[in-house]
């Protein structure tokens, strides 16, 4: 069992203890252990003895025994007892932003509400606002969060969609030689409603029968076309339950992720692939032949690729991720596809966290791995002092980190075959009034500052825009981090006037972040071209909290290309020498 799995069990136990109003000391014990163990980077908990576990911060004899129980059995008896005492609907309430375990417990115990539907009715009838410590504001937050979650139901993030699509493709390739991933996944959408694949076959009817033999794909009852299989993914793990008759049965859990498998005769495979990789808006674009792009695709032969279809239509080739019908042909009048940002063009990795704040790996581990990947610089941007929940750096710890960076830079340079350097950054909280989270004497010690909002996220458009504007106007702000604070499928971002913010960044020379975490992908790709038009550079940042997090930049590159971001307008395409010169010039004003 991995450290992450153990920590997840401890964190869930903490939440349920809070929900059931357990002893404060016990809650703190679990919480402390989960926090400290989440930052462990050089030891596998499953390999440690009870005595060794007690030497870890936040772990006493009792907690060590709990960890051993998890390692040996894969479960924690105390958690299972808490789960048994908790209605499923109450557990689902943990997804709702704006209420924590204690407030969920109050709703459950005082109002007897144990379902999401019941909670919605209680909000709509004003019962929640009357509870002590809640009020109208909390009630509205709950309603807004539930409405957002409802609107996102059935969708999956880009990273999970890609994994599931590849899983299905690999399975289908056992039966069919010609299988490709199409649709939203191929277009690199940040969230995906339907995972779509295309299969070339001479016998679509027989192919559908073959699909139905795959046990973890569940077909919908109604099929609209003999050439299309529609269904859901079924979780291949099973749970054992005892029905009234006492017979043991396997209960499969259906995931609400739609799957569509389209079958086409081989002579139409390429044209159908092109069609499925494009939106209707893109396909409706007029061509030199006086017809739509869709009509040209339909008339194409088997051998004609997407490139050939565009050529026949008298149009420039558009990469799949840009086929949205949102001005991509206009973009191509000013740029070439070769101008689009790629992973290989990135020269450095900015906005990363280490064990100085809430990262999993040490500064040295993060730096050496960055160097091994062939990058020229690592920008370390741990959390600032206000972020106490993330072990934010007080001024004295900033000084210690900078001293370690100086030592590491000497050591790394001595053994490097090409230039490499750790840049001294910080992710400074943007406080409620828009100020940054340190006095000037501390801010001026950093090479650069990523300014981000992490607290008081419930704001009006005017308040949020004004707060960001104040931070942008601060001469120490280098990069505006995850501008809306959104968490895809979980939390809607606070509203901002994007045009006003982008124009302010243009005036003050502030770079805007595309936070590449698949949970965020913020700035939204739809605003990339406006940034470029205004001369605002963008930085694709992984927000990595462990070294493996660097690879999230692939997701950032995906959405950046979707928005038409060029290498020229990407901040971390700059070489080490170029970015040092840029930062030095900016600091001098």
UniProtKB/TrEMBL annotation:
Residues 1-324 form the DNA-directed DNA polymerase X domain. Residues 51-70, 126-145 form the Helix-hairpin-helix DNA-binding motif class domain. Residues 348-432 form the Polymerase/histidinol phosphatase N-terminal domain. SMART domains: HhH1, POLIIIAc, POLXc. SUPFAM superfamilies: DNA polymerase beta, N-terminal domain-like, PHP domain-like. It comes from the Bacteria. Gene3D superfamilies: 5' to 3' exonuclease, C-terminal subdomain (1.10.150.20), DNA polymerase beta, N-terminal domain-like (1.10.150.110), Metal-dependent hydrolases (3.20.20.140). It holds the Pfam family HHH_8. Keywords: DNA replication, DNA synthesis. This is Helix-hairpin-helix domain-containing protein. It comes from Runella salmonicolor.
